[in-house]
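Model it.
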Amino acid sequence: MVIKSIQDDIFNSKAKHIAFAINTEGYNDSGFAGKVSSEYWPELANCGKNEIGTVLSKTIGDKTFHALVCHSLHNGWGENQADIIKECFDNIPANEEEIATIAIGTGFVGMLGGADFRQIVCGMHDSKQQIMLYSNYTLEAVINCYNEEKGYTKRKIK
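Modeled.
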């Protein structure tokens, strides 16, 4: 469940866990994954093929980075994005500690691949994990988006 929305640099997070999206092909040298690979986890840039739903984790210092395999460079994000995101977050071994994440799917690669941030938010919100979303979206906006997508409200925001 998304418990907080924070407008700050995720790398300054007090959370011990940082989660982000990577692709099935294992080419993660751009976007947020590219930043993680260039500054913290070099082997992530070309980590080989992985199945959707897989979580790769690496601890560096006091942070554990969790790379969520949730889309394909060739086949895009697919139609069950909420389920995949929920599965990935639920598979993070965080031991009930908070997990920091970014607005997954809103970057250039995500938009080109058909990422639907509304569905991604639903997957985050349905997760059993305690998620801190580092983005410009308020917690109220996230909850409203979730409620709209789940049909709990008749009001739609365009």
